Predict the structure.
Amino acid sequence: MNDAFQVVSSNTDSALRQYFRFVDLKWAGPATSIFGVPPAVRAGIELLVVQRTLDHTRLLSTVPDFPNIFAACHFLASASHRESVATTMDIVYDRLVTRFSSYFNDVTAFRGVLQLTGSAVSGSFALACILDDFSEDPRVGWGLEWQPRDMDIFVPTPTVSFDARDAPSIPASTPFEIMHAFLTCNGYEKYGTRATYADGMPEDAVRRVFRYRRTGTSHLVDVVESVTSSILDMILRFPSTIVMNMITAHHIFVMYPQWTVRRMALPGPTLDGIIRAKYQSRGFVFVEGNNDIGVPCGLTCPALARNVARRGSTLLAPYTEIGKGAVPQEIPLWQVWKSSVPCTNSLCNLASTGIPYFDNAV
Ligand SMILES: [Zn+2]
């Protein structure tokens, strides 16, 4: 591991804490002598990324037998028993580490980079992680109709860059540059520049995309930079709800949980035939209307206004102790969205109110 991305551990008060320490590669190399070292970087940016009580023992008998991460997150979103929550978070965390570990030397350092830059894993890889069948040996397969081909990491464009906050005259590191440096340290090489992100994202939602390949492997990573300071703005532009999910440093976020868990998708106006066929071949069903479901829509309503704070309209689950008490920086509290599929259900209990609100929740 390159010195620019360090993980430091400490054991105190019977708790394990791991800190991610970032030193900008630019300043660690020869450039130092040209620009000098800005104070904030010289001191090192340090983030707490792991906090675990060492005497915590898993009480597997207190949690259900989860079929996948989605089910575990659903449990986490409403569970309150301390040991059950800790055990379930461990289950999710361990599965993610298993899935990420062949991509990075140190998954804790990767999570540190996600936290530092406000980035997230999304797209097909995140979807596969969330629906990954626990009964399948992760060394063999995913228990899905497909294997995710590459990992997509979504990074924001910062309004104020990290270094510039402390030293405005010094060129700044953007999340994109930090992610580039991290991948380089993990044996990745640029594998071509693409003008657009392949999964049907409208061009004007994406500032740039770099594709990387890990030397000696078939592992591909796409780094996709938003045109705004919020990656949620970009993820909302996906042409289908099925990939509107995020894995952040501490949380898993599913924007259309009632549909995603059923492997159903609401198409957006920009969904083209190729992307539609791609997900259909993976076993997903696109829904153009809901006039024949025979019951009130409740939270499944495609016209439901969804928001991270609106209980049940989305699924937000922490998978670390640090995430438990924190609202993720990547998901603005004020942001509200709904699908572009109209509700055609005559029994809808939301349609008559005009703007559906979750107090109609079932
Ligand atoms: Zn409805």
